[in-house]
Amino acid sequence: MAFEFEKPIQELEEKIGELEKYAAKNKLDLTKEISFLEKKVTDKKNEIYNNLTPWQRVEIARYINRPTTLEYIDAMFDDFIEFFGDRVYSDDAAIVGGIATYKGTPVTIIGHQRGRDTKDNIKRNFGMAHPDGYRKALRLMKQADKFNRPVICFIDTKGAYPGRAAEERGQSESIARNLVEMAGLKVPVISVVIGEGGSGGALALGVCNRLLMLENATYSVISPEGAASILFKDSSLKEIAAESLKITADDLKELGIADEVIAEPQGGAHNDKDTVYGTLDGVLGKHLEELSQLDRDALMEDRYQKYMDIGVYEEQS
Amino acid sequence: MLKDLFSKLNKKVNETNSNDGTFENSASIMTKCPNCKKILYSKELYKRLNVCTNCNHHLPITSVERMEALMDEDTATVLFEEVASANPLEFPNYGSKLEKDQQKTGLNEAVVCAEGEIDGTRTVVAIMDSRFRMGSMGSAVGEKLARSFNYATERGLPVIVFTASGGARMQEGIISLMQMAKVSVAVEKHSQAGLLYIAYMTNPTTGGVSASFASVGDINLAETGALIGFAGRRVIEETIKEKLPDDFQTAEFLLKHGQLDRVVDRNDMKDYLGKILRMHSGV
C-alpha cells in the first residue's frame, strides 16, 4: 500500500493474513470468517477508491511507481528511436522524444520523463525541464510537421524548473515559443496527461487537437501547495486548494478542456499497468483515426477553435 | 469613444490617488522618487510620463495614461470594453476582489485594448494594468487579447501588447492557464498572415504571461528597469540555495542574455514604436 488513505484496507488485509496463518497453524476452518473479512476489504476499497479526493489523486499522480512516459512508449509503440538534444546548448533528460510506429504509422512522441528512482530522478531533474528540454521538444515537433507525422505528447511534470540557468537561457521564451509553434502545426497533436500537469511547463507540450487525461492525473495552473500558500497564506490548506482549483480529470472534462478521461484500474495505474496501456491505446487510436480525416489546414483550424472556445467571461451591454 | 472613456477613467484614477500612494503624480504637488529619494514636482514628473527627472527611474504609469501618451490625438477607439470577468470556479472571495479593483482603477479588467494611430500608422494596442489583480490573466484578459489579435488579423493591422502581469489568475484555475494557449493560437494566426506583433514588456512581466505572448513578438522590447522572468526570485533562491544578483530578471539582464531586441526608455517609446511600425507598413 502506497498511501496513508489506504491504511484501513491494509489493516483488514493484515488481519486476513493473520487469520490464515492461525487457521493453518491450528488446523482450523476459518473460511467463513476470512470470506467475511474479504468482503469487508472489497467494500472498503470501493468506499475509498470511488470517493478519492482531489488531493488523494494528486498523491496518486505523483507516485514514484506510476508509469512514466518511457514505459508508455515501450508498451504501446513499436521501433522507438530516441533522439537527443536541442542543437543549441544541451540535451535535457527531463524531456524525452523520438520517432516510433503506432499501428504501423510513423509518429513523433515527446514527453516529460520523471525519474523511476532517486538516481534516475537526479538525471531527469524530477521531470522539470530547462529551456533546452522545451527546445528539443519543439525541434522534434517541427520535424514531425515537415514529415507529416502526428505528434503525441505525454505530460507528467511538476512544472518548468525554477533555476538561475533556466532564466538566463530564456525559460519564458522557450515555453512561449512552443505554445505559438504548436498552434501552427499542421499535423494531428494529441496530448495525454499521465501524471501531474504542472502549469506552463506542462502546457509547453499541451497545445493540442485532443487533450486526454488519465483518471487520476491532475492539471493545474499552480500546485495545490503553492496555491494554498499564496492564496490562503497557509500551505497546510493544500487539500482545500486542490478542491477549489478544480484540477482532476473529471473537472477538466466538465470544463470542456479535456476531451476524454482514460479509466484507471482501481486504486491507480500502478496497480495494473498493462490494463492502462490497453485502455489508453484504444482511446488514442480512436482520436488519431478521427484526426487523420482532417487535412493540414483543417488541423490547425481545429486547434485554433478548441482554444478560442475556452474561457468563461461576461459580456456587459 | 476613447476620449470619454479616458476622461472618465482618469477622473476615477485621480480620485483614488490620494489614498492609493502609488500614483501620486496628479494628486499632490510633490512626489518623492522611490529610487533616488529626490523630491520632484508632480507636474514635471507627469510630463515625463512618470520617469524620474533625476535618476531615470521608471515609476508606475496606468494603462490609460500610457494609451494617451502613445496614440495620436483623436485617433483611438477602445475595443472590447464589454468583456468582463465571471467567477467560473466560484472561487472564494474572487468576486469581491474583482469589484474592489474595478472601483480602485475604474477599469473593468486588467487590460485595455484600443485601435488607433501611432505616428500615423493604424495599430491595435493592448495595455495591461498591474493595478488590477496584479495584471493577472483570467478568461476576460485572455478573451480581450485574443480578440485584439483576431481583429488585427481580419483588418491587416499590426499589434502592440504592453505586458504587465504577475502571471495567470489563480482564482480561475486551469481556465487561466489555458488563456496562455488561447492568446497563442491568435498570435500565431496573426503571424501567419504576415503581420507585425511587437511585445513590449513593462514592469512586472512574470509567470504565465512572460511564458506566453510577452516573449514571442516579432520584436521584443522592454521598458528600462522592468522586472521580467518566469519564476519568482524567492522560489529560485530556495530551489538552488544561492543568492541571486541584484539585476537578476531586469530588462537589462534579459538584454545581456539575448532575450530582448532592445530596452527602451518610456519617453522614447512612441518614437521607437512609430519608426518600427512605419518600416513594416509597406509605405
What this model shows, in words?
Helix content of chain A is 49%, strand content 16%. Chain A is α/β, with parallel strands linked by helices. In chain A, helix 1 packs antiparallel against helix 2 (31-49). The mean pLDDT of chain A is 96. Chain B has ten helices and eleven strands. In chain B, the strands form two sheets. In chain B, strands 3, 5, 6, 7, 8, 9, 10 and 11 form an eight-stranded mixed β-sheet that branches. In chain B, 55% of the residues are buried. In chain B, strand 7, helix 6 and strand 8 form a beta-alpha-beta unit. The longest helix of chain B is centred in the middle third of the chain and has 20 residues, at 173-192. With 283 residues, chain B is an alpha/beta fold. In chain B, helix 5 (139-155) runs parallel beside helix 6. Chain B has helices at 2-20, 42-47, 63-70, 94-105, 139-155, 173-192, 207-210, 233-240, 251-256, 269-279, and strands spanning 30-32, 39-41, 77-79, 83-85, 111-118, 121-128, 159-165, 197-206, 219-223, 228-229, 262-264. The chains are: A alpha/beta (317), B alpha/beta (283). Strand 9 of chain A pairs antiparallel with strand 4 (83-85) of chain B.
Gyration radius of chain B, rounded? 18 Å
Q: Total number of β-strand segments of chain A?
A: 9
What fraction, in percent, of the residue positions of chain A are helical?
40-55%
- Give me the oligomer status: heterodimer
Amino-to-carboxy terminus distance of chain B: 28 Å
The number of helical runs of chain B is 10
Span from first to last CA of chain A?
56 Å
Mean pLDDT rating of chain B: 92
Annotation, overall tally of beta strands of chain B? 11
User: Helices and strands of chain B: which structural class?
Assistant: alpha/beta
Q: What level of helicity do the residues of chain B show? A: 25-40%
Biggest sheet character of chain A = 8 strands, mixed
Query: Could you tell me the radius of gyration of chain A in angstroms?
Result: 22 Å
Give the amount of beta strand of chain A, in percent: 15-25%
List segments of chain B where confidence is low: pLDDT < 50 over at least 5 consecutive residues. Answer: 12-25
The ordered H/E elements of chain B are: HEEHHEEHEEHEHEHEEHHEH
H and E order of chain A: HHHHEEEHHEHHEHEEHHHEHHE
